[in-house]
Design a protein that fits this description.
The protein is an alpha/beta fold. The chain has two domains: about 5-285, UDP-N-acetylmuramoyl-L-alanine:D-glutamate ligase (3-Layer(aba) Sandwich), CATH 3.40.1190; about 295-430, Protein-Tyrosine Phosphatase, Chain A. It is built from 15 helices and 17 strands. The chain has helices at about 5-10, 15-20, 30-35, 55-70, 95-115, 120-135, 180-185, 200-210, 255-275, 280-285, 310-325, 345-350, 370-380, 395-405, 415-430; strands spanning about 45-50, 75, 90, 95, 140-145, 160-165, 195, 215-220, 225-230, 235-240, 245-250, 295-300, 305, 330-335, 360, 385-390, 410-415. The strands form three sheets. An eight-stranded mixed sheet has the order 4-3-2-5-1-6-7-8, with helices on both faces. A six-stranded mixed sheet has the order 12-13-17-14-15-16. α1 packs across α5, α4 packs across α10 and α5 crosses α6 (about 120-135). The longest helix is centred in the first third of the chain and has 18 residues, at about 95-115. The protein is globular and about 55 Å long. The two termini are about 35 Å apart. Mean pLDDT is about 95; it is low at about 15-20.
Length: about 425
């Protein structure tokens, strides 16, 4: 397939990405697909990452650590911001259009041969494993798409399993308690593996300890953040792992929680090598980390920030970074939009929208988008005074920029779909 045909094929198999619905949760289809491929997910050792928030940042930090150590690294993450190619990368570089078309085409042929109708996510997952095998990566860093146990990525038999944290999310598939969510996430832990456990709640930690790992390294006992200081453009960290203390590490990401993610990633890298990393390797790797769309500063005067917070814990973290680390002289303007399945009131409260000077609501560019007018009603109900509703993400961003002075701050958030549409538009406008 060429890239146009590949994207059309993916669009024809959309389900959760467009509708929020998953039918018949199971790994049966992906197992049949990778079986016909000769199980490419076993072609290299893997590090498998789950968690309510922080998976993407942890995967990218871990990738940089492994690459800087000299390995060829295949990384699979989701969702993408602007192009599906972003989900599959080698040493941090997204797959090319030609390579992606080839891999999607191969999966399509095998799906027909197997007599299965795979989902969008299953297709992309199978394509990632096949590509990683074709290019002979040394290690795969694979981010779970949804929960863990029956996620398509869970055909892996990963040597290292990583859990960043557990929060209330995807309760339509794993609920109603956090223990239920934890049990689903614990499904990625395989016998004989090492588990890096970032969740510290005693009840939830016990669920992961019982999941069958040969070794469990827990936050607070096996690893921790010793120092986490605000710095220009990011954080300065000191991290403790089971073997070493790494001091004065600069990480060019905003938010205290990124220090937590960095500690998980560094501990996972040590577990993979079964050895500490050199201080200069860690310094070089951390300095090279980039996370588009995750509390990313796009411009100054006004200060323009995009953040893909898409659930209440993420929204709470986003607000904490905004109010704790940034103190604009002028107004705070919020452009926000949510997907179906999110309660606008809960999300707006977590974002502290009532402390913003203006809230401009938009409708994400997907069939799952909650109408801007509905979000605006929720904003007014929690006490926001200056509220507007515009259907288009770009229109909402333009309306905010028109109102903003050089001293103001503009935050665009609420969904990765919102950020994915806003980011290229804002970069084009801000760069003139």
């Amino acid at each position: 397939m060429d890239i146009a045909a590949a994207l059309a094929y993916l669009a024809d198999h959309s389900n959760y990405d467009d509708t929020g619905r998953i039918t018949s949760p199971s790994t049966e289809r992906i197992e049949r697909l990778v079986g016909l491929m000769g199980d490419p997910q076993r072609a290299a050792p893997a590090i498998h990452i789950t968690g309510t928030n922080g998976k993407g940042s942890t995967a990218q930090i871990l990738t940089r650590l492994l690459v800087t150590q000299g390995l060829s690294v295949g990384t699979f993450s989701s969702p993408h911001l602007e192009r599906v190619n972003e989900r599959l990368s080698r040493n941090g570089e997204p797959i090319t259009d030609d390579e992606l078309g080839e891999q999607i085409g191969a999966v399509a042929d095998l799906a027909m041969l197997a007599g299965v109708e795979p989902s969008y996510f299953e297709i992309v997952t199978a394509a990632a494993f096949r590509w990683f095998a074709d290019i002979a990566v040394d290690v795969m860093v694979v981010e779970v798409g949804l929960l863990g146990r029956w996620d398509a990525t869970n055909v892996l038999d990963a040597a290292v399993a990583v859990v960043t944290n557990v929060g209330f999310d995807h309760l339509e598939y794993a609920g109603p308690t956090l223990a239920d969510v934890a049990a689903e996430k614990a499904g990625i832990v395989k016998p004989g593996s090492t588990l890096i456990l970032g969740e510290t709640d005693p009840e939830l930690a016990a669920i992961f300890r019982a999941a069958g790992a040969e070794r469990v390294i827990e936050r607070g006992m096996g690893f921790d953040v010793l120092e986490n200081q605000l710095a220009l453009g990011g954080r300065v960290l000191s991290l403790r792992t089971p073997s070493t203390i790494y001091s004065d590490l600069y990480l060019p990401l905003h938010g205290r929680y990124q220090g937590e993610n960095a500690s998980v990633a560094l501990t996972a890298a040590e577990a993979f090598f079964d050895a500490p990393l050199a201080q200069d390797v860690v310094e070089e790797a951390f300095a090279a980390v980039k996370m588009p769309g995750r509390f990313e500063v796009l411009g100054h005067q006004p200060l323009v920030i995009v953040d893909g917070a898409h659930n209440p814990p993420g929204a709470d973290s986003c607000a904490a970074v905004l109010f704790d680390d940034f103190d604009p002289v002028g107004k705070k303007l919020l452009v926000v939009g949510f997907l179906a399945g999110r309660d606008p009131t809960t999300m707006l409260e977590a974002l502290r929208a009532d402390e913003m000077d203006a809230v401009i609501c938009c409708t994400p560019g997907t069939s799952r988008g909650i109408p801007a007018a509905e979000v605006a009603r929720a904003a007014r109900a929690i006490g926001c005074d200056d509220v507007a509703a515009l259907d288009g993400v770009a229109d909402a961003c333009d309306a905010a920029l028109v109102r903003a002075t050089a001293e103001d701050l503009l935050l665009v958030t609420g969904s990765l779909y919102v950020v994915g549409h806003a980011r290229p538009h804002l970069l084009k406008v801000l760069r003139g």
